[in-house]
Design goal:
2 domains; 5-stranded parallel β-sheet; 4-stranded antiparallel β-sheet; 12 strands
């Protein structure tokens, strides 16, 4: 695995051009009968070139548009990716976007007070781009319905430190176009996530998230999300975090105070607490005295879940 931080490589051997034509033809015929269709692109197996339906494969369009992998090949990739991460003393960490790392609302949902203050602030900070370390941004879209985005306090330091200990993946119920723009605010140089931005288009179950489209073994995966209900099959991997609301939209219904009135403290935020918990799990997992390396990280998650303060909400998108 040449570059663990950028993406997961996919390669398959094909018959070389030097093979005698008759031998290559015979092998091609056998492949058409025996091929397990490990990698499928635009409905065709890349090995035998036959048309293949989607019944026995999983979508990995976040790695390459229209890409699917067979269950067997995906398992092999999980083994390889997990092994490579362990070689760097890293586990895998899945990060939600909305209400976990940031809060985004449509401009039309801002109160007049918020619009007057926040839009001007976002436009002023936009001159410096994401590298200017701003935390409020305006985001236009192809539909013309713009968003204003507030990054959660401590998020940049969180990502910098978490990247040293984990292979980071974004997993959001937001759409691919929106998620691509937002992750550029968090990771403008693609240092942290690379191609690993999983969106609702990649989900195999409507309205739910699953590790079946994550190329890592479940025993080595941690999840940080504000919403428990979207992970019904992976509660043991989940570290639930208090949802982040900065704008007033949606806060009255949920009985919380928006950060616009009183923002989280940078070094006492929920992300700072979550980082301490994650660092503790990582330290214990790789502690040679405990002999846990190569085991199931979920046993430690159960012991430390309660240390992340707050109770996760029930947002409609996450």
């Amino acid at each position: 695995m040449a570059d663990l931080c950028k993406s997961t490589p996919i390669s398959l051997a094909r018959p070389g051009p030097s093979l005698p034509r008759s031998i290559a033809s015979d092998r091609a015929k056998r492949r058409r009968v025996e091929c397990s269709h490990p990698v499928i692109h635009e409905g065709r197996c890349l090995l035998c070139e036959r048309a293949v339906d989607d019944d026995h494969s999983l979508p990995f369009g976040f790695l390459r548009p229209s890409l699917r992998l067979s269950h067997e090949y995906a398992d092999r990739m999980r083994e390889a990716s997990t092994g490579a991460a362990l070689g760097f003393k890293k586990l895998h960490l899945i990060l939600d976007l909305d209400h976990t790392l940031l809060h985004a609302v449509r401009l039309s949902d801002l109160t007049p007070e918020e619009e007057e203050r926040l839009v001007a602030e976002a436009e002023r900070k936009a001159e410096f781009g994401p590298e200017g370390r701003g935390d409020i941004f305006l985001d236009g879209s192809e539909t013309g319905k713009g968003f204003v985005i507030k990054l959660r306090p401590f998020v940049r330091e969180f990502l910098r430190k978490a990247d040293e200990l984990f292979v980071l993946t974004v997993y959001t119920m937001g759409g691919r176009a929106y998620s691509s723009r937002v992750t550029k605010l968090l990771d403008p140089d693609r240092e942290y996530f690379g191609d690993r931005v999983i969106t609702r288009e990649d989900c195999t179950l409507r309205g739910r998230k699953s590790l079946d489209v994550v190329l890592a073994k479940e025993t080595n995966v941690l999840i940080l999300d504000d919403k428990k209900t979207v992970w019904p099959d992976h509660a043991e991997n989940l570290i639930a975090i208090e949802p982040f609301y900065y704008f007033s939209q949606g806060t009255e219904k949920r009985g919380v105070q928006p950060g616009f009135v009183h923002d989280e403290d940078e070094h006492d935020s929920a992300l700072a607490t979550a980082l301490r918990v994650l660092e503790g799990i990582h330290q214990r997992y790789f502690d040679p005295k405990l002999g846990l390396e190569g085991g199931d990280v979920r046993t430690m998650v159960r012991q430390m879940q309660s240390q992340v303060r707050g109770t996760p909400g029930d947002q409609s998108s996450s």
